[in-house]
């Protein structure tokens, strides 16, 4: 689990990131989870946007993605979800 201090640090790091995935009308699927997992391994910290036509609750989507990828939810703000997962090979973020 991330501490409050670590989450604050990651939120600051994620501020300038652009969303690289979008969750739409179909919600979360297996293929999306696989791709997000690969992106997390490369980047450690990613932003995902939820489109207007998505019927599911954003907190539910965040939970599904975090569970499927074993990542931590840093923040759900507006229509964006920020996920963090420590990389095995490409560790670049040093948590406080």
From TrEMBL:
<protein>
    <submittedName>
        <fullName>RNA-binding protein</fullName>
    </submittedName>
</protein>
<dbReference type="Pfam" id="PF01985">
    <property type="entry name" value="CRS1_YhbY"/>
</dbReference>
<dbReference type="InterPro" id="IPR001890">
    <property type="entry name" value="RNA-binding_CRM"/>
</dbReference>
<keyword id="KW-0694">RNA-binding</keyword>
<dbReference type="GO" id="GO:0003723">
    <property type="term" value="F:RNA binding"/>
</dbReference>
<dbReference type="InterPro" id="IPR035920">
    <property type="entry name" value="YhbY-like_sf"/>
</dbReference>
<dbReference type="InterPro" id="IPR051925">
    <property type="entry name" value="RNA-binding_domain"/>
</dbReference>
<feature type="domain" description="CRM">
    <location>
        <begin position="1"/>
        <end position="96"/>
    </location>
</feature>
<dbReference type="InterPro" id="IPR017924">
    <property type="entry name" value="RNA-binding_YhbY"/>
</dbReference>
